[in-house]
What we know:
The chain has 329 residues and is of the alpha/beta class. It has a domain at 32-51 and 80-108 and 158-327: Phosphatidylinositol (PI) phosphodiesterase (TIM Barrel, Alpha-Beta Barrel), CATH 3.20.20. The chain has helices at 2-26, 78-87, 127-131, 160-166, 181-191, 196-199, 208-217, 226-239, 269-277, 299-302, 318-321; strands at 40-44, 91-98, 104-106, 171-176, 202-206, 222-224, 253-257, 281-285, 312-315. Strands 1, 2, 3, 4, 5, 6, 7, 8 and 9 form a 9-stranded mixed sheet that branches. Strand 2 and strand 3 form a beta hairpin. The N and C termini lie far apart (75 Å). The relative contact order is 0.14.
Amino acid sequence: xxxxxxxxxxxxxxxxxxxxxxxxxxxxxxxxxxxxxxxxxxxxxxxxxxxxxxxxxxxxxxxxxxxxxxxxxxxxxxxxxxxxxxxxxxxxxxxxxxxxxxxxxxxxxxxxxxxxxxxxxxxxxxxxxxxxxxxxxxxxxxxxxxxxxxxxxxxxxxxxxxxxxxxxxxxxxxxxxxxxxxxxxxxxxxxxxxxxxxxxxxxxxxxxxxxxxxxxxxxxxxxxxxxxxxxxxxxxxxxxxxxxxxxxxxxxxxxxxxxxxxxxxxxxxxxxxxxxxxxxxxxxxxxxxxxxxxxxxxxxxxxxxxxxxxxxxxxxxxxxxxxxxxxxx
Length: 329
């Protein structure tokens, strides 16, 4: 009986070792297809003024806490996007808000009061009225002693149509800032008029409800929301060790915090291969996921990434990050 038990234990121990070996090899770089590509660089809001993220909440006026300006560009404006692409960005992210006359303004904040000389919400104004505002009005790096961009941002708030027309061959990540499903429907109606090759250059992310309504109307568009992120990553965490990629991870986008990424099966090389085969774009953002605006904004930040990483990098300082990859254009 003792001999039988010993043999049985040995047998199960060997099975366990084989299982561990399989999981290790199947998710290691040994089976990864090598890529010589450099990472995709995603410029958050173009080339913009940056600020401390410490203590930032949904209603924090970030224009009132910027660092001393190192460049003249303001977020979500055509000049800031031009500067980002010229610096070497592959994709530029911008935020949209519906207007009173059925357009989308490119603007980040819930209200106009912080960043501009206007008041209220973008939806209470026509696009022409929003054009009259100064989007540089509220910026200060010294608690209101000086306002270095005041008077320089009049007319710089673009419509989404202006942006896409101005950059006909560039890739964008469009951010729906609300959780209103009607905004997803409105955006889907706009995007449906674009040719397929243009749609392939656009990705949309935002609240669960508008993203769901947009995806229902335009299933071919690459999207991301917290719901799609969970729907894809949870099953992958459970069974991704086998190499299986769930249907929910096909043709989508993932924003993965750097502190979570190492826990994904096969990260970075094998995981990236699987996502490439699924036509899914991987973007690494800074931190632990508590603030998805946190990016890789310095050489020290980039050095935390695996040397072989070839996915996307989220940055608020494309002017600093692109030269690291010799991407200045």
